[in-house]
From TrEMBL:
This is Kinase-like domain-containing protein. The lineage of its organism: Eukaryota, Fungi, Fungi incertae sedis, Mucoromycota, Glomeromycotina. Residues 1-156 form the Protein kinase domain. Keywords: Kinase, Transferase. GO terms for molecular function: ATP binding; protein kinase activity. It comes from Gigaspora rosea.
C-alpha cells in the first residue's frame, strides 16, 4: 500500500475521533480492531460501547486492548481525550509496519509495566521522519504533550495535500526495501484480522504497576480467549 493510501486511512480515522472529541466524548477503546474499512482507504471508527462524556465520573476499571491503553490509564488515572490520542499513535505505528502492536510479546502485566516505564514500538527504517516524530508525539508519556485530534487532522491533511510533504512520502514509497514494502502492504489485512482479538479486561484493582513484583505482574492481566 502506498503512503498516500495510508494517510487517507488515517485521515478518515482522525476525522471520526475529532468528531467524538468535539462533542465532549472520549472513545476509550480505540484500536485497529475497532476500525471498519468499507474499501481500501475508507475507514471509520466503530464500537462506541465504551464511549463516555468527559463530564461523566470515572468508574473503576481499565478496559481495552493492552498495547493501545495509555500509560497513565494503566497506573489508575482516568481516561481522557489524550488517552485516545495515545491509541491513535499506536494505530499510526501499526499502519506503517503492517503488523499488530507488540505482536511478538505476551500481553501481560510485564508488558504493561514496560509501557508505563517508557516502552514504545520501534519504527522501521524508511518511514518518513516527520511521521515517526508525530506518532511518537502522540505516544508521549506526558499526556499534556500529545496533540489534539484537530491538530492531528490538520497535519495529516497537509501531508496528503501539500507538494512538499507529498514528495517526502512518494520518496518513501520509492526507497523502501522489498521486505519493508511487503510488510507495509499487509497493513489493511492486519487491521481486519485484529478484529478477532477479544477485548481485554485488565485487573484494575491494582493502581500502580511500578510497585509490583514480577510474579504479581504475571497475574495482572485477565485475558479473554481469542474469538
Amino acid at each position: 500500500m502506498e503512503w498516500k493510501d495510508k494517510l487517507t486511512i488515517l485521515l478518515h480515522i482522525i476525522f471520526d475521533l475529532q468528531t467524538i472529541h468535539s462533542q465532549n466524548f472520549i472513545h476509550r477503546d480505540l484500536h485497529s480492531g475497532n476500525i471498519l474499512q468499507n474499501s481500501l482507504t475508507d475507514a471509520n471508527i466503530a464500537d462506541l460501547g465504551l464511549l463516555k462524556s468527559v463530564d461523566t465520573p470515572e468508574y473503576s476499571g481499565i478496559y481495552g486492548v493492552l498495547p493501545y491503553i495509555a500509560p497513565e490509564v494503566l497506573i489508575g488515572k482516568p481516561y481522557t481525550s489524550a488517552s485516545d490520542i495515545y491509541s491513535f499513535g499506536m494505530i499510526m505505528w501499526e499502519i506503517s509496519s503492517g503488523k499488530p502492536s507488540y505482536y511478538d510479546r505476551k500481553h501481560d502485566g510485564i508488558l504493561a509495566k514496560e509501557i508505563c516505564d517508557g516502552l514504545r514500538p520501534t519504527f522501521a527504517n524508511g518511514i518518513p521522519q516527520i511521521y515517526v516524530e508525530f506518532a511518537n508525539h502522540c505516544m508521549s508519556a506526558n499526556a499534556s504533550e500529545r496533540p489534539s485530534a484537530s491538530e492531528l487532522q490538520e497535519y495529516l491533511d497537509s501531508w496528503a495535500k501539500k507538494a512538499f510533504y507529498i514528495k517526502i512520502f512518494k520518496d518513501a514509497d520509492i526507497n523502501i526495501n522489498k521486505y519493508e514494502s511487503e510488510s507495509s502492504n499487509n497493513c489493511v489485512n492486519t487491521m481486519i484480522s485484529s478484529k478477532s482479538i477479544a477485548r481485554r479486561l485488565i485487573g484494575s484493582e491494582h493502581k500502580n504497576l511500578k510497585n509490583f513484583s514480577e510474579d504479581e505482574l504475571n497475574q495482572f492481566c485477565i485475558l479473554d480467549n481469542l474469538m
